[in-house]
């Protein structure tokens, strides 16, 4: 028999189990941040679990607040009326309720989010006695939801404002979502209903979409995939697509998501670039000049052949495959002495193109004259366009030698000609001049004798004929003297060049009635005989041209020394002429004067304006 007040072992065990259950429930509520409550209609008694006190920031030793007056102070002002109305409505109808609101914790004034649930309690006969419920702290969950919502909103904003087109669609191609860029690329009306749009209808070739889907299903994603598509108006465009499969929690593919970029212009640019590269390669290979492309090593320490055209192979007798990848110093050992490396480095450093003139190159394999034009590519590579001038240089040297020989021959012929003129002038003087003078003297003697003879046969007619004969002989003597002077003026050999030039001026003035002025800062001219003759003939030819063609009234001869040269200027006020026509017409006089000047290292410059006269400028070096 069990005595009163004594706890049986079974009861003790049950009490321990009950206490453990309560502790477990408290721990569970604490972990879940879930507090429980009861409210009895009959007594208005409110009971809270320990965790609910913690949620509200109250001491569990306190009495729980009454409903509804004691609760209002805990609720956020914006949430109290709504919460009160929902709960009172549920109490009146005997229904369960669920709501979310914000609570202001008493302990620290912080605002937390809670989820409130209430369930009616009934007697056995079905009468409501009160409510039992829970209040859970869902602040962390709410923060995560808010962050998720914000992230979704940010994602939507990004998608909406993305320059690239975004889309999602079913495997069959039915459009599920898109952004404004998608509408713009394919030409849709921004206000158009897109629910029936199929991505597959925008592909130019359905077979291409089948290949695309096979690749996407096999790999799960596709990157930088070029697709030939079309706008709703039928305009053909090229897009670049990046897409991937989206699966549900069971691994089933539910949709395709991707981004698109209108690649039409890039494709056109690439095609134009490809065509440009083909044209460049065709030009590169078929240009007559050699072209070499070099990669620059370091700061210009070395230059490596990267490309070499066919003309370059022919010019330098090289094979492209044996040159590409090798240093210029290895292929062209004499390049530094040649001077081209300095040009390479200057162009590489400044970026400015540079010209390397025709220069002699020599190594143990190659010798020749080469011209180079060097420039820098945007990629930093150096390009040299070069031509072989060896044949032309040899021809120039041969031409120079030939010209030198011809001028030497011309000088020799001029010397012979002048010598012959001198001999002819002497012979004319010695033979004809003396004979004519003797005849004139003889006729004068006869005339004097006849005049003292008184004979009827001799009449005045004979004396007149004698006088005429004397005049004819006198004219002949003058002509002989003029001819001798023209062949070789005695004044040049006897009195020198300066006196001979003055004699030419007098002759021009006497023959043409022109006013001829001399301006000279030179008292005497010290040249050898050949130079004196050449200068004399140059001035003589100039005066002859003026007399025959210029129609001038004034002539001026300036003589001066300048920079170890004798400078003669012959200027007239005649009709002038077009200087450009000198080399186009048979102006042998001026051409001959130029050649005669060149024989002595001099120059001849001609300035003339039609209607304003002509000026010749002759320079002869003193050290020639």
Please explain how this structure is put together.
This protein is α+β, with helices and mostly antiparallel strands and 624 residues long. It folds into 5 domains: 33-144, 2-Layer Sandwich (Beta-Lactamase); 162-268, PAS domain (Beta-Lactamase), CATH 3.30.450.20; 288-380, PAS domain (Beta-Lactamase, 2-Layer Sandwich), CATH 3.30.450.20; 389-488; 496-621, Heat Shock Protein 90, CATH 3.30.565. Helices cover 46% and strands 26% of the residues. The strands form 4 sheets. Strands 2-1-5-4-3 form a 5-stranded antiparallel β-sheet, with helices on both faces. Helix 13 (390-451) crosses helix 18 (588-599) and helix 16 (497-512) runs parallel beside helix 17 (529-550). It is rod-shaped.
């Amino acid at each position: 028999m069990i005595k009163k007040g004594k706890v049986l072992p079974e009861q003790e065990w049950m009490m321990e189990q009950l206490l453990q259950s309560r502790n477990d429930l408290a721990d569970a509520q604490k972990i879940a941040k879930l507090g429980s409550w009861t409210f009895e209609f009959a007594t208005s008694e409110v009971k809270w679990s320990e965790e609910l006190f913690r949620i509200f920031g109250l001491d569990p030793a306190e009495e729980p607040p009454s409903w509804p007056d004691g609760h209002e102070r805990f609720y956020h002002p914006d949430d109290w009326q709504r919460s009160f109305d929902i709960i009172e409505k549920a109490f009146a109808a005997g229904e369960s309720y669920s709501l979310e609101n914000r609570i202001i914790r008493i302990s620290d004034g912080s605002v937390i989010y809670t989820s409130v649930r209430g369930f009616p309690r009934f007697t056995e006969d079905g009468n409501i006695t009160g409510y039992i419920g829970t209040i859970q702290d869902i602040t962390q969950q709410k923060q995560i939801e808010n962050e998720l919502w914000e992230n979704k909103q940010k994602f939507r904003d990004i998608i909406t404002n993305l320059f690239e087109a975004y889309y999602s669609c079913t495997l069959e191609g039915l459009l599920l979502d898109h952004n404004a860029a998608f509408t713009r690329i394919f030409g849709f009306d921004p206000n158009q209903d897109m629910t029936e749009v199929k991505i597959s209808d925008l592909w130019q070739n359905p077979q291409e979409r089948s290949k695309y889907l096979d690749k996407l299903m096999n790999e799960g994603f596709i990157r930088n995939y070029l697709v030939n598509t079309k706008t709703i108006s039928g305009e053909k465009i090229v897009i670049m697509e990046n897409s991937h499969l989206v699966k549900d929690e069971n691994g089933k593919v539910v949709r395709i998501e991707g981004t698109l970029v209108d690649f039409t212009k890039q494709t056109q640019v690439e095609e134009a670039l490809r065509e440009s590269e083909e044209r460049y390669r065709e030009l590169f290979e078929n240009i007559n000049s050699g072209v070499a492309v070099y990669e620059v090593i370091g700061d210009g320490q070395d230059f490596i052949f990267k490309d070499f055209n066919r003309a370059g192979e022919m010019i330098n007798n090289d094979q492209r495959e044996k040159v590409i990848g090798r240093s210029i110093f290895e292929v062209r050992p004499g390049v530094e002495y040649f001077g081209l490396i300095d040009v390479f480095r200057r162009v590489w450093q400044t970026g400015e193109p540079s010209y390397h003139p025709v220069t002699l190159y020599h190594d143990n394999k190659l010798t020749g004259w080469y011209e180079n034009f060097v420039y820098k590519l945007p990629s930093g590579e150096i390009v040299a366009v070069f031509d072989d001038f060896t044949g032309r240089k040899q021809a120039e040297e041969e031409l120079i030698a030939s010209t030198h020989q011809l001028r030497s021959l011309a000088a020799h012929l001029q010397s012979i000609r002048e010598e012959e003129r001198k001999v002819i002038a002497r012979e004319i003087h010695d033979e004809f001049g003396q004979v004519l003078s003797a005849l004139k003297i003889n006729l004068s003697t006869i005339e004097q004798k006849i005049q003292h003879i008184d004979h009827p046969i001799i009449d005045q007619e004979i004396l007149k004929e004698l006088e005429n004969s004397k005049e004819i002989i006198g004219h002949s003597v003058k002509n002989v003297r003029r001819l001798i002077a023209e062949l070789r003026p005695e004044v040049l050999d006897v009195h020198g060049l300066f006196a001979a030039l003055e004699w030419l001026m007098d002759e021009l003035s006497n023959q043409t009635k022109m006013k001829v002025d001399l301006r000279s800062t030179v008292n005497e001219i010290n040249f050898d005989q050949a130079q004196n003759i050449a200068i004399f003939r140059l001035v003589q030819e100039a005066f002859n041209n003026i007399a025959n063609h210029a129609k001038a009234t004034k002539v001026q001869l300036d003589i001066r020394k300048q920079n170890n040269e004798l400078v003669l200027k012959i200027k007239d006020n005649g009709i002038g002429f077009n200087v450009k026509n000198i080399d186009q017409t048979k102006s042998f006089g001026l051409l001959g004067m130029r050649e005669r000047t060149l024989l002595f290292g001099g120059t001849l410059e001609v300035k003339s304006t039609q209607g304003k006269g002509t000026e010749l400028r002759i320079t002869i070096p003193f050290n020639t």
